[in-house]
């Protein structure tokens, strides 16, 4: 990770002490490096502390547990994916095209993570297995993106207005999981761009019905 | 398992010798019992052989490996689920209602397996993790069920005919996975009947567009 990047821990559970403390960032940078090199599961709090010449108890001034550090790093990683998806949908005004880009964007980012940053993928995988808060926030953010697109499409008259907004958007959000859930990605073992486009098309047809 | 039940091994890989040999059924019954009691991973070929007073090498006359036995039992288990889904959709003539029952049926059967036959769920889970042939056949069967419903709906004029049949049906089949994939079921940790109905509704709206 670029040392200039600041990891935003607002809303991340298990954090202690002042949010903007430079020690916290130092710990997170060291953790990020260790997770990328050796993986989340194989890294201990002692490894992280040692890397920056701190004592393990000192780390507890900032974080409840290794998981709290993992959640902060995972949140940052998932946040980057969300930012890219947001940028991609901001580049078009069509709600139909935006919806397609959510599916394609999540698929391609998930697949790239698995292939290019396997250890980061494993961290995200742990967040799914253990149901971390970072994952809930990510799923909620995906839902909110989809909700905004559906609302826009309803307002412009391109999308139907008969179905309950919340339920429809929750269901669409669930469908995107087929293309970014770490276990499903691993088991698919290949890029699923075509499948993601096909799923987006089913969703779009249902919205323009 | 009821001792009267015969496990059909046709099409299951890793089988050796005559398909209808009563020894094969005896081995499968013993394996089924062991898998249910101790789980697939913890059962060895030697355990199965010992239970029916056979030697482990003798088992290799009928099966390539423990996985070949696992696949046969898994196929049988998934086949039972398919039969129940088939029965449920045969009870209505409406393609819309049939489609809804596929989603609801797979969800409820998957959830019941997780809750009532945890060890069998674990065996199915192993088939997903390791990509067994029994799983491919199950997914293909789900696809064929969906394809039949869509063809029927297109013939009766209830479903649209503009989209490519194969792609649309493959996509719908993928969507059902959200409700029976063992890992997703475990992580959901609750019955998802409402979500399955909502997903079926999105699919149905897209088909009746």
UniProtKB/TrEMBL annotation, chains A, B:
Entries under SUPFAM superfamilies matching the protein: Homeodomain-like, Tetracyclin repressor-like, C-terminal domain
Keywords for this protein: DNA-binding, Transcription, Transcription regulation
Record flagged with keyword Transcription: yes
GO terms, molecular function: DNA-binding transcription factor activity; transcription cis-regulatory region binding
Start-end of DNA-binding region: 44-63
Record-linked InterPro entries: DNA-bd_HTH_TetR-type_CS, Homeodomain-like_sf, HTH-type_TetR-like_transc_reg, HTH_TetR, Tet_transcr_reg_TetR-rel_C_sf, TetR_C_27
Annotated HTH tetR-type domain residues: 21-81
Protein origin, superkingdom: Bacteria
PROSITE patterns, per database record: HTH_TETR_1, HTH_TETR_2
One Pfam family cited in the UniProt record for this chain: TetR_N
Name listed for the protein in its UniProt record: Transcriptional regulator, TetR family
Source species of the chain: Acidisarcina polymorpha
């Amino acid at each position: 990770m670029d040392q200039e990047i600041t990891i935003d821990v607002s809303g991340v559970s298990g954090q202690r002490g002042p949010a903007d403390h430079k020690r916290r960032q130092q710990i997170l940078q060291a953790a990020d490096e260790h997770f990328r090199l050796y993986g989340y599961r194989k890294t201990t709090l002692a490894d992280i502390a040692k890397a920056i010449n701190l004592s393990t108890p000192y780390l507890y001034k900032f974080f409840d547990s290794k998981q709290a550090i993992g959640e902060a790093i995972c949140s940052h990683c998932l946040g980057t994916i969300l930012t890219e998806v947001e940028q991609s949908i901001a580049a078009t005004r069509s709600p139909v095209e935006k919806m397609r880009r959510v599916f394609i964007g999540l698929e391609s980012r998930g697949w790239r993570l698995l292939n290019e940053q396997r250890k980061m993928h494993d961290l995200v995988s742990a967040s799914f297995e253990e149901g971390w808060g970072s994952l809930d926030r990510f799923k909620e953010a995906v839902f909110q993106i989809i909700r905004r697109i559906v609302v826009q499409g309803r307002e412009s008259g391109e999308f139907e207005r008969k179905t309950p907004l919340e339920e429809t958007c929750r269901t669409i959000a669930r469908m995107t999981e087929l293309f970014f859930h770490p276990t499903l990605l691993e088991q698919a073992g290949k890029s699923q761009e075509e499948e993601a486009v096909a799923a987006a098309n089913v969703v779009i047809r249902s919205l323009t019905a």
